[in-house]
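Can anyone check this?
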Amino acid sequence: MAKRAIANVQIVSPIGVDVGTLLVDDGRIASVRTGAAAIPPDDYEIVDGGGRYCAPGLIDIHVHGGGGFDLMTDDVEQVRGYARWVATRGVTSFLVSTCGRDHAEIVRRLRAVAPAVGMAPGAGRVLGFHLEGPYINPARKGAFPPPWLRAPSAGEYRELFEASGGTVRQVTLAPELPGADELIRAVVASGATAAIGHTDATYDEAMRAVGLGASHVTHCFNAMRPFGHRDPGVLGAAMTSDALTAELIGDGAHVDYAAARVLIRAKGCGRVVLITDGMPMAGTPDGGGEWEGEAIRVEGGKAVRVSDGTIIGGVITLDQTVRNAVAHMGVALHDAVAMASTNAARALGLDGQYGVLAAGRAADFVLLDDALAVTETWVAGEVVFSW
């Protein structure tokens, strides 16, 4: 691979923005130079960034599809197609968020799609899987059909982990259910992130899960016990425990921007992770469609189930969540970018590889114009999208 110097850019780091040059060698970042040191070495091919922002590639750890592609699937080509499409939105890596009607279907899906995990030319990286369920509380099921849900089982989880080829990275579960303690231990022992979500847990139950190793909260405010001043629930745990990172669907539809600002002020920008919870119709025009046998329609920035109006998932893209954070959540650009990259990598324990423009990390980055629109996406030091 060529040595490339991405020069004349505004480097976006977790602490600010500075004019500089990004040096890329063999798919990794060789160094980041700013100020007087930003002059590229003679043996590097110079790529003129034109004064654009150069930011870490975006990482979506909770997404079910987009661009017409479905990640709740047995079809590996659906995942590969999504990986190509999502790179046009600045996403350089993502988790396949999936579940199924029964244990056998989830096993089949994981085995079928596991070959897509990793890198492919012209596409974002598939980091692995996020199991959103089936071990969630029917009282807070959201859009999940009740027959899909069942009690936590550490034994079943181990079978799922094996079926994935050891690439399950995150599991959303309800810690108040019988068997959840053993499941949390099994998830953590496997190296995956145990996430509290779709839950009616009390504050004490949530904090017990933290003590067992849970370290993340799935789409805060959505599908969980509401915050009360005498019953703070999972939200109270999320907003007061430094051990927990907190997902936030950044579309303004799932969570009002005022509530988003409350979460950010409580947690700090360093512990909030922007996600899309995207559905196959994300990034496509409004209209009707079908998902998992349910008639849905997209309007007003959200997808809803036609039968009862339940929000069934997000239709936003991750680059838009960054723009929304800056425009509506009172967040500085560098913090908004970190919430969609650095923090996501950290939540999965992958911050030593992705999410920051620093020497030794993967050369996954995006170039943004003044309106924060994605103009180029690079994965492993190669352009996978250019506008």
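Reply from J.R.: I decoded it. The longest strand covers residues 4-13.
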